[in-house]
Amino acid sequence: MESSLSIELAKQVLQAVGIILAIGTFSGLLAQKLKVPDVVVFLLVGMLIGPGVLGLIDIKADSALNQLILIFGSCYILFDGGASLRLKVLKEVWITIVVLATVGVVISTLITGVAAYYLLGVPMVVALLLGATIASTDPATLVPVFKQVHIKDRVAQTVMSESAFNDAMGAIITFSILGIAMGGGEFSVGHTLLDLLKQSLIGIAMGGVLGYLAALLIAHEKFGFLQEYAPVVSLMAVIGAYMGADGLQASGFMAVFVFGIVIGNKEVFGFEMEAGEQERLEEYVMTTALIMRMFIFILLGSQVDFALMNQYLLGGGLVVAIFMLVGRPATVFLCALPDRRARWTFRELLFMCWTRETGVIPGALAGLLLGMKAPGAQMIASVTFIAILMTILIQATTTQWLAGKLGLLVE
Hints:
Elements: H1 2-34, H2 38-49, H3 64-83, H4 87-120, H5 124-133, H6 139-148, H7 153-181, H8 189-219, H9 230-247, H10 252-264, H11 275-302, H12 306-311, H13 313-336, H14 346-354, H15 360-371, H16 377-405
Helix pairs in contact: 1-2, 1-11, 2-11, 3-6, 3-9, 3-10, 3-11, 4-5, 4-7, 4-13, 5-7, 5-16, 6-7, 7-8, 8-9, 8-10, 9-10, 13-14, 13-16, 15-16
């Protein structure tokens, strides 16, 4: 009996995978025709085929399969994003990235929390918990958008890097506030900063070491005996970087992103692959990242709880509007404008104000709060889904248009 149940479960999963791949492929083609980022179409299609409408797929948010897809998919998209960055550009804007990924998360949390306190009528600690949950930007959304919409290098790389580095800060603040909300502790600025520093340094070190080893094995003139297996090596290292950092209670996503940066800039470290092998690796990474986007955003759309979202639709929508139109601009101008080294123009700052999509990471935090029965968890999950839908459907679809108006598009 157990064997037959396992087989039936395997068949159901296989069927869901086939449906997602088939519908995702046609959705990607539709996105190309409409000239919008494919994550937008994937999200909408997911809402359509999920249990709330057509019921073609029903993979629970708390299932092991869903968590596997979210974790690995986010890791791979982050790796792809890191590999597309250039150290030369990052040297110019690293101060802005660090401040946005730390102080910026705190500013977003406070502004969103105050808005939620007045508009939703919840206790301040619960309002701040909501603010912290949605404060971090989402690399799984932003990296694909900037892969498809070609923006001025330093702007795109700043926003992508911020999204990769601020998830640790968002999680730390979220659980610090949760401890207060559940009566389990007090917020300590010193402890929070120390925890952030530890997570960041370990994550960066883990990603850097594994990135260097991977580059050595696939691109060194003498020791690169795994050059033909470069895609497999990159796959192993992505998993290793995440699991290694996570096992040391550091940011696994940061480790994966740094690993991607090292692989993408291996020439700086004296490693160079043969043209044919480099092309194979790039094609493999591009295809795998596309598949991960399909699964992440179709599943994310299919798991939208319409009934729960409707409970806080008006108030939640207003909170998210303030988050987008007040919180993000305040964050960008307060954190980036003082960076005299980067010399940001007003147009560049204006563009960064508009690009801060919410997605997988905040969604995962909201799911954790639901599972822990945190105070206000139902409201937080509802508003988080509203934030995901509003930012992806409104901001991601208008990214190219705004970049064109501001003169930031490149050929």
